[in-house]
Write a structure and sequence with these properties.
Strand content of chain A: over 45%
Distance between the termini of chain A: 36 Å
Structural class of chain A: mainly beta
Shape of chain A: globular
Largest interface: A-B, 22 and 24 residues
Number of helices of chain B: 0
Strand content of chain B: over 45%
Shape of chain B: globular
Order of helices and strands of chain B: EEEEEEEEEEEE
Oligomer: heterodimer
Radius of gyration of chain B: 14 Å
Chain lengths: ~120, ~120
């Protein structure tokens, strides 16, 4: 089945130690998103790639970076994790048809739960 | 500003009861999209339905049904004969247009549904 895969499912890192979360997809979707979700909150969009074009949300801290080396893979890099970065990180994809103003469905991976010690 | 309100923070029902989750939205867009997602304890966001603003037909899928009413800016979700497996957090989301034809999702805070045996 076509799907969105996130590895690892659980990640423990130390305060200040860089960490990379990965996402891959077999849906061949051209848009990939990274969300942060803290306990009992709604997902918060960090950034997204429209094909190779990177779109950062205005309030996303500089500590968060992303790479998309090809259509299938996207990475979230946290350069110096703080205790406040402990959260669930969700990757999502969508297929944009190019029709103006159309919002296609976003399909989510299982998430990576990050713990910062 | 565009907004999504899910007034019910938590709902608890007994198995086989019917339950309705409310979603009220605000938007000035004439074309917009509404979504429902389910987030079980495992954390993955599961897509349930997408509805565009021009399609006010109600939708039924098995035990799930959705009532979209533009006159009251509501997109409510009903689970008939609830089951324990329906226990999850349910999010309603509205697509927001920004920077021309770009869109992103505005999320409600979610409703936590507990279905007890």
């Amino acid at each position: 089945d076509a799907m969105v895969i996130q590895n690892p499912r659980y990640q423990v890192t130390q305060f200040g130690k860089p960490v990379t979360l990965s996402c891959s997809q077999t849906l061949n979707h051209n848009v990939m998103y990274w969300y942060q979700q803290k306990s009992s909150q709604a997902p918060k969009l960090l950034f997204h790639y429209y094909d190779k074009d990177f779109n950062n949300e205005a309030d996303t801290p500089d500590n968060f970076q992303s790479r998309r080396p090809n259509t299938s893979f996207c990475f979230l890099d946290i350069r110096s994790p703080g205790l406040g970065d402990a959260a669930m990180y969700l990757c999502a994809t969508s297929r944009t048809t190019g029709l103006a103003g159309v919002q296609e469905t976003q399909y989510f991976g299982p998430g990576t739960r990050l713990l910062v010690l | 500003a565009q907004k999504v309100t899910q007034a019910q923070t938590e709902i608890s029902v007994v198995e086989k009861e019917d339950v309705t989750l409310d979603c009220v939205y605000e938007t000035r867009d004439t074309t917009y999209y509404l979504f429902w997602y389910k987030q079980p304890p495992s954390g993955e966001l599961v897509f349930l339905i997408r509805r565009n603003s021009f399609d006010e037909q109600n939708e039924i899928s098995g035990r799930y049904s959705w009532n979209f009413q533009k006159s009251t800016s509501s997109f409510n979700f009903t689970i008939t004969a609830s089951q324990v497996v329906d226990s999850a957090v349910y999010f309603c989301a509205l697509s927001e247009a920004y920077a021309g034809n770009n869109r992103k999702l505005i999320w409600g805070l979610g409703t936590s549904l507990a279905v007890n045996p």
